[in-house]
Amino acid sequence: MQLSEIDIEYRVLFGISGMVLLFTSFLIVFIISQRKKLQYHRELHDLQEEQKQSLMEQNLLLEKHVEERTKELLFQKNELQQSLHELKLTQLQLIEKEKMASLGEMSAGIAHEIQNPLNFVNNFSEVNMELIHELKQGLKEGNLEDVEGLADDLQQNLEMINGHGKRADGIVKAMLEHSKTATGQKEPTDLNKLANDTLQISYKSFCSKDAGFSTSINTFFDDGIGKIPVIPQSISKVFLNLFNNAFYAVNEKKNNLGANYSPLIAVTTKKNGSNIQITVSDNGTGISPVIIKKIFHPFFTTKPTGQGTGLGLSLSYDIIKAHGGEINVESAVGGLTSFTIYLPERV
């Protein structure tokens, strides 16, 4: 019995010791685990602090770069604005130069054209002064038959003076209409009359510069197109550019071929659907395929230095586009060249 009780006590002590050892092991493992977790959290916190510090440094660096880039972009913007301002000023000066050039050409033609009616007015005025003197003399002598004849001559001369005065007045009005600044307001305009008046001005201008210049001119104006809403001063400048170029082309070809060549200019207007079509054609020197792609570019010209600014067709293109229209060209070297304008019939 005593041995049995001793065995039980040992077994109990052994079991308790085992439990204590197991608990102690578990406690040690738990403590080690907690320490590792604590160490992990500390390392994680340190890492987060490092990342936070790194992000702050990167943000500061990025802000510095953004500030420097902003200053650089602002400087470039100011430079571009200054360049744009200077470009606009230059463009305005060139446009004004082109306007003055076309006005100068027109003035030369008008000066030549207006001289004829002025000569008639001056000559008939002198003749009328002599007739009045003779009329007074006839009245004193009582020769009524001679007086009546002199009065008839005087009346005819005054009618001639009146007619040539109106012609000169029309020429001056056409010049003023062309030279005044466009208001930007469209108004119903007789394109046939505008084209014909500008055509005559351009032709007289060429004749004044070259006394030997001559060409056949055919016009086919459709009276049914009525009045079209356009800015007449602007469209007149387009017509003048096209007519001047046509006369220049046939004159160049005439100088090269001489009597073997018959220059011809044709101007046509007609209704084409909802558009009015204006075509200016010539059988002059023609335009090569390479050049025809560039003719509406600003500053492009095939004329010798001093004879063209290279802005005429470019401005014409812009004017037609501003009117909601189109301008096209077809040409062959040494053959027919046709500029066709399409303008909307209604605004």
C-alpha Rg (nearest Å): 47 Å
Q: What fraction of the residues are assigned to beta strands by DSSP?
A: 5-15%
Q: Main beta sheet: strand number and arrangement?
A: 5 strands, mixed
Overall pLDDT confidence: 79
Low-confidence region ranges = none
How many β strands by DSSP? 7
What is the oligomer described by this structure? single chain
- The CATH homologous superfamily of the domain at 185-347 is called Histidine kinase-like ATPase, C-terminal domain
- Gross morphology: rod-shaped
Which structural class is indicated by helix and strand composition?
alpha+beta
Can you tell me the CATH architecture of the domain at 185-347? 2-Layer Sandwich
Helix fraction bin: 55-70%
Strand order of the largest sheet: 2-4-5-7-6
Q: Enter the CATH topology name of the domain at 185-347.
A: Heat Shock Protein 90
| Overall CATH class of the domain at 185-347 | Alpha Beta
In DSSP terms (H or I, runs of 4 or more residues), the helix count works out at: 6
Order of helices and strands: HHEHEEHEEHHEE
Give the CA-CA distance, first to last residue: 131 Å
